[in-house]
Every structure is written in structure tokens, then in C-alpha cells.
Design goal:
The chain has 66 residues and is mainly α. It is built from two helices and no strands. This is Entry exclusion protein TrbK.
Length: 66
């Protein structure tokens, strides 16, 4: 086989496998929500709420101790 034919065949195989992986991933993700209410509550309890942090008072930002 010619080198050009082999490279074209490998590119075609990579494109088809990428398309298949994308279609499989998208079909699974669209069926159900990301997190249930219970999982969302557990995540919020562990990581904290999604609210922004309060502003830093009097310029007291974190500084190294050295």
C-alpha cells in the first residue's frame, strides 16, 4: 500500500471513532439531569454554597508568613 493511502485511512478511522464517541456521550448525557436534589444538597454541604465570597475588609489579603 502507498503511504498516502495508509495515512488517509488512519485519518478516516480517527474521524469515525471521534464521531462515534461524541454521539454516544451526547446521547447518554441528554437523558437525565446532572445531579439529583440529594446529590446537589450533599455537594453544596461539602463544597459550600455557590455564593460569592464577602469582600476583603481593610486590605487584609492573604500574605506569606516569611
Amino acid at each position: 500500500m502507498n503511504r498516502t493511502v495508509i495515512i488517509a485511512f488512519l485519518v478516516l478511522v480517527a474521524a469515525v471513532s471521534s464521531l462515534a464517541a461524541t454521539l454516544i456521550t451526547n446521547s447518554r448525557a441528554s437523558g437525565k439531569p446532572a445531579l439529583t436534589e440529594e446529590q446537589g444538597a450533599a455537594r453544596e454541604k461539602f463544597f459550600g454554597s455557590g455564593k460569592e465570597l464577602p469582600p476583603i475588609k481593610d486590605g487584609q489579603e492573604m500574605r506569606p508568613r516569611w
